[in-house]
Amino acid sequence: MNMIRRTLVAAAAAATLALPLAGFAQDIKPRLIRFGYGLNEQSNQGRAAKFFAEQVEKASGGKMKVRAIGAAALGPDVQMQQALIGGAQEMMVGSTATLVGITKEMALWDTPFLFNNAKEADAVLDGPIGQKVNAKLTEKGLVGLAYWENGFRNLTNSKRPITKLEDLNGVKLRVMQNNVYLDSFKTLGANAVPLPFSELFSALETNTVDGQENPYNTILSSKFFEVQKYLSITNHVYSPWIVLVSKKWWDGLSKDEQKVLADAAKASRDFERKDTREEAGKALADLKSKGMQINELSPTEAGRMRDKLTRVNAGIGAGIGMDLWQETQAELVRLRK
Ligand code: KDG
Questions:
Q1: How many domains does the chain have?
Q2: Structural domain that includes position 302
Q3: Is 150 in the pocket of ligand 1 (CB under 6 A)?
Q4: Whole-angstrom Cα distance, residue 160 to residue 129?
């Protein structure tokens, strides 16, 4: 009798252990997830991708393994987006700006001077408006899990300090492949040149372009200080990244597997924002110590830049739908009370 009892107890214990993983593929091999991103492993984007991978492996008991693949090894943002839509790649993180060709409502986040600070950005991106924009992705074959922070963007170039609008005249400025960025910098007098991020360093190095705009962390981690002399602080737009999943692949996951990814994405969002904000101040100091000549646009000149860009803003409202535009403006008024 003892032997039978012991066997039943052992079987019950094994079954209990398996219960939490009941929703996971019971194959011996873990489910492999390719998570592509464009910056390098040492960047804030790379650190957060590693954190995400660790969270998924821990929460799934090793049943789901994320391979974080950086430096655009799986292609630039737009190529990875198509790979996710086609089901050839499972996940990525990249700019919302390069998504506008797929989901026009993402252009809301390109609006110059939309957010005054990160607190406003978090409230809108993580609140009903961000969720409404995210929902537009699913009809295009993508699932948006969380927004990470790229950060407030600033100008660098090899020609001269940008101290007033007129200094931008004729500067060959690389912009993301996105019409709002193209229109904005053309309106400001620059010769705007759209290029993928993966081609940016060599374009700067060969003087194909004179300058670019990105947050301090990216300027440092991508070593733009090696090929750019001037950094002009404009904070002209808050730039989010978004963690994306192939909807084709997502729909084949169990609810437990989907929950692991959704929870890990939110945990990585909080990790990434904290890391990015803590590192931004250090990055600016590092860029100065590496010899960049840094100036800050005066409030008067920043005001002139804002005024000049209001026409571009009118186009964004028309492009994303006036309801979404007005809802966002109203939410910002509420947040600023
Ligand atoms: O994959 C890298 C890009 O998503 C991101 O860094 C976008 O800021 C960006 C840029 O300038 O291309």
A1: 1
A2: 2-336
A3: yes
A4: 39
